[in-house]
Amino acid sequence: MRPITLVTCAAAAALAKPVDFVVIGAGTSGLVVANRLSEDPSVTVAVIEPGGDERDNPLVYTLDGWYQVQGTHVDWSYDLKGPPGPDGKPRKLAAGKGWGGTSLINGMTYIRGNTAEFDAWEDLGNPGWNWEALLPYYKRSELFTVPTEAQIAAGATYDEDYHGFEGHVRTGYPSTVKNTSFSPNVTQTWEGLGFEHNLDLNSGSVHGFSVSPSTVDPEQDIRWDSARANYYPIEQRRNIKIIQGTVKRITWAEKRGRPPKKGITANGVEYLTPDGKTKTLAVKKEVVVSAGALRTPLVLEGSGIGNPRILKSLGIDLVVDLPGVGENLIDQTNTVQAWIANFEASSTQFQAFVTAADLFGDDLPAVEASTRESLSSWSQAIVDASGEGALDPAAVETQLRLQHDLIFKKNVTLAEVISMGAANAGLGNGDTPVFGSAYWNLLPFSRGSVHLRSADAIDDPAIDPRYNLVDFDLQASVAAGKLVRKFWASQPIAGSVSGQVVPGPDVLPEDATEEEWESFHRAALSPNFHPLGTASMMARDLGGVVDPELRIYSTANVRVVDASVLPTQFSGHLTATLYAVAERASDFIRGKAKRN
């Protein structure tokens, strides 16, 4: 790891003075905001981040290191509450620690989602938040490299109308995407099952199958994380610095109990240095919290923003009563099946997105009706699981009903299947060629939470995703698993498959019962590492934490810009949307954007 040389003597003196903006977290979103704000040389920006500079870490910048880096010092690797994994140990939720945040350790997939999913944000109290509003920001953030002829032959296609060519985030296809015997077999098998090739998964419709771009520099074949995109090129600016430290809380200008009509004002940030000293950095304009979906709620609770009952139990004085802080945690569950297959080694990954109609076929009307009738009981189960007066059943049901309409009325995609050489996911079996599919329910109804365990334990939060709290989530995962097995048993791909190795036939036989399918998915699930929603952009009476300009309710100058504000899951991967939301947030802060 590159040594952290943050400040010269002159810069240290400057940082001792108040700064205009403090960004909490040098992650995927925080570095976008810091970059954009520091474009104005008249303002000063400080970013406070517990992790360090990882630009020389090969597990970070090499394309095949993303699944090896998890569990290292670059990963918070949080323990989860709930049932343990197959090894009997707590399941872990990966989250990036360092300049670039989770963009340092993710799978690099760049996929946005379906138009209707983003349009639905408006229905949660966010006028002006929709696909059309986000598309210019998706394009502004992106520097797309068109695929080569060989990559197009392997299945990589695009529509230039939906891509940006002048942004900071490089996207494209690594040289390892090539046309081997695997690609035509995948293409022809999906087509044989009635699915169409999708010209561009970033066009606002992801239904069908294709090869998606990644956040990579195709010329150098390296990962293009947020630090490479947004910080390293501008780190010589005199008005921006990264301070290594762990933020404990935001400090406030007003006395408690006397909030002005415009909201209380932050006047600084208190943080802990690596050597254990507590320091405070004064802020003149705004605090932007970009610590991520798992840490942002902890910063807010430490600052007195959250559920009064929880804060009282932690011995923290209440500043703003917002019970939604730390609630509405939504993550997906990932499951893998793999086979021995006689294909040339391939790093090409095919994404397939399928709807509820694709999964349930003739049973769709019955599934739609039974799930609609269950929304009220699911809402109550979510409220009961959270406890502590955090949620309102009617508000939760409003959210679930909106999601139900997306799935069954607007026919958005419900499951994603990635087919690949299993070595890409660390499932290789020596010299034996192993190929398979990772898949997940994109739109789980289950909701979890993340909260401080104690006022001084921000690095050891209580995270409970409550996977499969709602039984339909398991039902959807099982349906996707059956489709995966059908895919690998269909021609022409089946002609090169000789046996399933994950799971073995003792776990999931060919004639597996419904109970065996469910048991396998409960035991084999792993987090999909797409947590969001814990400081949601929603109407306050729905449990929202930030308004449509991402300002925390009842505050005058504190915003949240990271995955915690995303109110719903969507049929994409987080990275693309986080970059777009951060770009738009930067315009709000600078007064360059309007909601409508």
Automatic annotation (TrEMBL):
Residues 1-16 form the signal peptide. SUPFAM superfamilies: FAD-linked reductases, C-terminal domain (SSF54373), FAD/NAD(P)-binding domain (SSF51905). PROSITE patterns: GMC_OXRED_1, GMC_OXRED_2. Its cofactor is FAD. It comes from Cephalotrichum gorgonifer. FAD binds at T28, S29, T102, V247. This is Related to alcohol oxidase. The active site is at H530 (proton donor), H573 (proton acceptor).
